[in-house]
Amino acid sequence: MNLKAQSRRLAVTAAFGMASVLALTSCAGAGGGSSSDGGASGASGGGGGAQSINVLMVGNPQMTDIQKITAETFTKDTGITVNYTVLPENELRDKVTQDVANQGGQYDVATVGMYEIPIWAKNGWLHELDSYAKADANYDYADVLPSIVKGLSGEDGKAYGLPFYGESSFLMYRKDIFAEKGLTMPERPTWTQVADFAAKLDGAKPGMKGICLRGLPGWGEVFAPLTTVVNTMGGTWFTQDWKAQVNSPEFTKAVNFYVDLVKAHGEPGAGQAGFTECLNAMSQEKVAMWYDATSAAGSLEDAAVSKVAGKVGYAYAPVEATKASGWLWAWAWAMPKTTKKADAAAKFILWSTSKDYEKLVGEKLGWPRVPSGKRASTYAIPEYKAAAAAFGDITLKSIEEVDPANPGVQPRPTVGIQFVTIPEFADLGTKVSQDISAAISGSGTVEQALANGQKLAEEVAKKYQK
Amino acid sequence: MTALADGAVDTEVAALAHRSTAAQRMRRRAPLLPALIFTIIITQLPFLVTIGISVLNWNVLRPGDNAFLPGVELGKYESFAGISNYVTVFTDNRLRHAVMNTIVLTASAVLVSVVIGLLLAVLLDRRFPGRGLARTLLIAPFLVMPVAAALLWKHALYNPDYGLFNGVLNWIWQLFGAEQGPIIEWVTNMPMTAVVAALVWQWTPFMMLILLAGLQAQPGDIIEAAKVDGASGWQTFRFLTLPHLRQYLELSVLLGSIYLLQTFDAVFTITQGGPGTATTNLPYEIYLTMFRKYEYGEAAAAGVVVVIGTIIVATFALRTISSLFREEVGR
Amino acid sequence: MNAPPTGSLARHGGPGGAPPSAAAARGLMRRLRRAKEPEQGLAPRGGPLWATLAWGLTLMFFAPVAWMVLTSLHTEADAATNPPSPLASLTLNGYRELFRRGVEPYLINSAMASLVSTALVLALAIPAAYALSIKPVEKWTDVMFFFLSTKFLPAIAALLPVYLIVKKIGLLDNIWALIILYTAMNLPIAIWMMRSFLAEVPREILEAAEVDGAGLLRVLTLIVWPISMPGVAATALICFIFSWNEFMLAVNLTGVRAGTAPVFLVGFITSEGLFLAQLCAAATLLSLPVLLAGWAAQDKLVRGLSLGAVK
User: Fold this and answer.
1) Which of 132-171 (B) contact C at CB < 8 A?
2) CA within 20 to 30 Å of A309's CA: A302, B299, C129, C270, which one?
3) Does the ipTM surpass 0.90?
């Protein structure tokens, strides 16, 4: 067998094949180029009957649901085609920030959170949505929960984002395992109690760990639950007059507590675990408790994807020094100023955040999967009430009782629970979270991480101290 | 092996002999110009822009009022920064850390894949049943799309719950009656090793191909003569084959370094630079500065420094490559 | 088993492929034969132990690929078992799901970006290589090294300006932005490769043809093209592979319409529910064109990747 002779023959064949393919595609290229002519000219081609809008969204379950039902409902009714791009949270933030901040104009609608909206609105990057939301009586803007409306408004008080779903955080636990072990979860547990439970629940079943807590780097990943722990243990990122507090005893105590807990009784691979990994762990019976977003309950109670549907109990976010400690977040639709299809985009936004859309999801995909936590009326729908009997009330109450302006024991410089609403926080939070994630993985210490964090925080604070 | 060298010498001589009118020279240059102009525009222009950005205070989340490049206006920056971005680049220990990570990552991935590649090349240099098929299968890792390969390693192999590695350990343990095998968190506990292993897997076939070509270019009669003289297999390898392979080894180290220095896909996918900054290499750190910190000026300054560093390394590399060609000419 | 040299000559001959002169043809045949000679010495045979070791290592390296393909054919539930269940029943569901998620536009974009940029690269590289080998300009080595040096520059350092410029001229999320950048990315390698292939065209044939009064066009079509054809194929293959696999520029410069195959995979970076089979299906499907092309032309691969230094 002579390799060279054989492959030479192949190469010649390949060459002829390649040449003909090249000829084909260069023809296709000329045609394809003009028909799908990129962002700028494509976006200006709106106005006709058959419109299409580009939507960039985060790959959470509620978002992937909308992808499944848009064509047969929204597009059918309005003639507007929706092109979805779905990305994981970190990649989504990269992409959407890059596009919006540079006026890239690739997207007509994007999912943006409570952290970004006030900052971006101030920079004039977003289209206000007040006029659309208030013009439509059916939409019933007044029904949207006040804390959420507030979080999605700009300095001028106008809405710059409409919520797709809202969430606070709470503690999910396996009722059956608790019963087996003879434990009772109080309605409002403290973190000390939770740590105690976690120790007792470790190994309740082969391979089962006590609790799942996020350890994935990212200000919106590990720092979402961790900052609520910091808040309730008396810590804060900054004092009201912009003094960095990252290495304060309270902050340190909270982070040590969190890291120790997840190291001792947390899920395997905690340093790489975010919301989706924990959702997997909980729904595949790998952990007995999970402290995370209230919006997780819908997925956990969906028997099609979860092995623990019906077995999960829900308790308020654990506290120490504060009365409540849940976070507040909403994934909202925002419209970049660069869009040339504002009306079509607004139609889509109003449709997907409407009461009708909630009904549609309930009827088509099942009531636990309704994107909830944003409208008071959701919790009055009988079918939803039945489906969300275990978690509906506590979700609504959690969202209602948190106070973004005053989430801890001391006054804060900005409004926001699990984040500081300044542009620099994304980088600051992410960098500190990297060191904390490393500490969770067993390299580096919490003290070192926070000492570095304090330095970074002081740099940031300098710009704001008067 | 000498066809290229002959041609090169011949044509150079011819070129000298033909040195004549300007018109002729222009005619000679004409076919070259499109490629040359295109390359200069697409590769050099962006670097000039990078240098321009590197002296600005430009955080995209705090848009300023000054148009960058008046007339073209690529964006709005806050103010002129002078060399302060460069000061940050040289004093920030994150960047120093990234340089170290880049060196460790590149060096270990290149060396390990060259060593394993050499072993495979030596093995494949002899005939054995199914040798052609073995070579075909061996190059497969190199042909898998890098992002796909990184995802494959991250999820299908390393995942502590359902990845193949822990799965096989579990299977072996259960074979011997244990209830469950050890759960090793590959990416968490040994992040750098995890990234390097995935890269080594992808690059070993490449090294193997180059070194195999080297082995097959080795004149058979000398080896025969050595055998007749009673040299052992190891002696032949050590004193004849290895020196012969030297330039091929150099070439594979060089090319591997060029490509692996720029590793982005694997870090972006497998570890996202973590845990902490344990696997953040330079390309990823610059990416973070650009897209997570939004400090365009700082990112550009880091880019300029990296380019200068690369030019220094590349000059050395190019010298080696050109000496490689000269050696061919000399033979 | 060797193809006789005349065979390859005839195959490369093209239409009416008679060489311009008999002497030249003899010279060409001599050269082709000489190039083949080292191949004809048979490699020593390895013993059973040798074969076992070689095959053991080979299978170790191939195992992840095999596992990827196997998992892609399993159901999600079977793919995520621990210990693994390699013998589970097979299904094409993973692939079906990919098409339901709409992988086709990504494949079409990738094909478009790689094939068109490859065509452009060849159109620019072949004349340039001609001017660097057959009728070289003065100081051609300097020009060569300039081209190669651009290959060393870290792409990440150019990403920001490239993004800003592409946005400015309205080519964001347009496949032509990638086509142009991939052309620039592959041009240096292509010129290096093509130069080394063209340098193999025997001088004596060219001179003989010139003496016989053959015009430039005749020389190119009858002599240069047939001999360098395998080189063109190899160059095209390498450019195709690099463009198909390119990730960093694609992920940052495309969005909705122009996303290429690697961009499709970004959605799989964090896991959600059971998705391993689908991930493996995507990895397999998207790698397939390059796998097939690379396997079909193994020895061209190494020559291309080593910038023509190793033959």
Assistant:
1) 134-149, 151-153, 155-157, 159, 161-162, 164, 166-168, 170-171
2) C270
3) no
